[in-house]
Amino acid sequence: MAAINYIGRVLDREKQAPISGAKVSLNLPGYSVVVYSDLEGIYKFQVPFDDSNVLEGEITIEAKGYKTYSSFIRLLPDDRDIGDIRLVYPHNVSPHNVSPHNVSPHNVSPHNVHPHTQEVENQDNLLPIIAAIMVVLALIVAALTLPPPQETPPPETPDNLINLQQPLPLSVNSVYEGLTLSIFS
């Protein structure tokens, strides 16, 4: 049985700043560990891996002044980076007036952690995504409804055009007659 080192980071969702001293609890079948994040918000833990390809369990992160984060986690032997986990403030508390009396921590999901119970958060960040999807769909519809390009036939050349590549069949007399007619008429 090999021990595999995993790493992750705890951040403040609004400030994107690291959260130090956050308690990170990992509960897997037959194995539990508790570690704390360092000054840069980074936490590390070692997991004993047997012959299985995946370990599933729950990760919980608690930090003073934040909602507690609890989520399902799937650990793979090849993917050792848990990613960033961003904690949020409780709804009735702003980042400017956090006190120990009005704190009840929970959070947002990182890249390979999938929350099983989580509150709906600020949906303002969904608006640009929805707008981009609608623009792409409109472009696709426009492209599909355009008529196919039509092939333009080559321009017709009338028989009365002079080909400048060929010599003109003119004689001196015909030129003289043409000039005298145009001058005296």
Average pLDDT:
76
Helical residue percent?
A: 10-25%
The number of strands is 8
Stretches where pLDDT is under 50 for at least 5 consecutive residues are 94-123
Order of helices and strands: EEEEEEEEHH
What's the Cα radius of gyration?
38 Å
- Counting helices, strands and paired strands, the structural category is alpha+beta
If you had to describe this structure to a student in words, what would you say it looks like?
With 185 residues, this protein is an alpha+beta fold. The chain is 18% helix and 30% strand. The protein has 2 helices and 8 strands. The chain has helices spanning 126-145, 172-184, and strands at 2-12, 23-28, 31-36, 42-49, 55-62, 69-75, 81-87, 113-114. Strands 3-2-5-6-8 form a 5-stranded antiparallel sheet, with no helix packed on it. Strand 5 (55-62) and strand 6 form a beta hairpin. The longest helix has 20 residues, at 126-145. The termini are far apart. The model is unreliable at 94-123 (pLDDT under 50).
